[in-house]
Write a structure and sequence with these properties.
By secondary structure, this protein is of the alpha/beta class. The protein has a single domain, classed as UDP-N-acetylmuramoyl-L-alanine:D-glutamate ligase, CATH 3.40.1190.20. The chain contains eight helices and 14 strands. The protein has an eight-stranded mixed sheet, sandwiched between helices. The protein has a four-stranded mixed sheet with strand order 3-2-7-8. Strands 5-6 form a two-stranded parallel sheet. β9, α3 and β10 form a beta-alpha-beta unit. The relative contact order is 0.15.
């Protein structure tokens, strides 16, 4: 099928706890302001966002035949994401997220996050897609240098736009040098500031971007949270401020940014237009608990942008 976007990577359930009180109320009991369950994982968040934005979207991921997997499948189907490419795994991962009042969070993962599948085995089934989003480098399944190279080369051979989001390594420790062979095949690398700092050892955003470009990446987009975002390539640099909002939960904001940017690029928008749109998608995501809650449609985003100029 000729999809607009295929999102490949991690699928899981997020258990989101807001307002956790560290003072116990009993020998083994604690309280929190709220607790919710949401379909999550980079590929899931990106796929649901892209579908809501009007793109024909499929997901290539692994899910267990369990309650958590059923929950993720149901969320994907509600958003009209094609689930035909889902691979069966022993267990669906669950992440526990502790969200602070400012929307920032910390997470706990488990061994199920190490379960891998091999997306390079399915490239022939997605050759018609316009864009492939890898969510995310340095996390399973994209924590194997040979696998990463096979996927990005296969995608470029098929003429696809290749977007690679990043995450800090967890179970398997990789460095930028480990994946250097794959970097020239990536059109846009989209780390946040912490991830870029880890990858480069640098502190200043422009220097981080330069270091990543030197490794062969074609374009670097740094997601800088409340300080906006930065796009840099060998031709120049563009920096945009963030929208002023009250952030409730930042879970999935980066994934929404990537989905929004990609959806506009394949529609023919300029990088600056796509960057502004992705910026708005990420901001909207933070206004409700759960990664897929606040975003509704492309029309919503465009209207939101008109009423909230940068």
């Amino acid at each position: 099928m000729n999809w607009d976007i295929v999102c490949a990577g991690m699928a899981l359930v997020d258990s989101i706890i807001r307002g956790f009180d560290p003072e116990p109320v009993s020998a083994s009991g604690f309280r929190a302001a709220s607790g919710t369950l949401n379909a999550g994982g980079e590929a899931v968040n990106e796929a649901i966002a892209a579908a809501k934005l009007g793109c024909r979207t499929a997901i290539l991921c692994a899910l267990g035949e369990d309650g958590a997997g059923d929950m993720v499948r149901a969320a994907l189907r509600r958003a009209e994401v094609c689930t035909d490419l889902i691979v069966r795994s022993p267990e669906t991962p669950v992440t526990t997220l502790f969200v602070r009042e400012d929307g920032s969070r910390r997470s706990i993962t488990n061994e199920a996050h190490r379960y891998n599948f091999h997306p390079e085995q399915y490239l022939s089934r997605i050759r018609g897609a316009k864009a492939l989003i890898l969510g995310s480098l340095f996390r399973a399944p994209f924590d194997d240098p040979d696998l990463i190279l096979a996927v990005v080369r296969g995608a470029k051979d098929a003429g696809q736009l290749v977007m690679a989001d990043t995450k800090l390594p967890n179970f398997r420790k990789l460095s930028l040098a480990d994946v250097r062979g794959a970097l020239p095949w990536i059109d846009y690398l989209t780390p946040n500031e912490d991830e870029a700092r880890f990858l480069t050892g640098l502190e200043e955003p422009e220097a981080m971007a330069d270091a990543l470009l030197e490794q062969g990446v074609r374009n670097v987009i740094l997601k800088l949270g409340p300080r906006g975002c930065l796009l840099k390539n060998r031709e120049g640099m563009l920096r945009l401020p963030a929208y002023r909002i009250h952030a409730v939960d930042a879970t999935g904001a980066g994934d929404h940014f990537v989905a929004g940017f990609t959806s506009e690029i394949i529609r023919g928008s300029t990088p600056e237009e796509a960057l502004r749109f992705g910026n708005a998608c990420g901001a909207i995501c933070t206004t409700a608990v759960g990664a897929g809650t606040a975003l509704e449609s492309r029309e919503q985003v465009l209207d939101w942008m008109r009423n909230r100029p940068l």
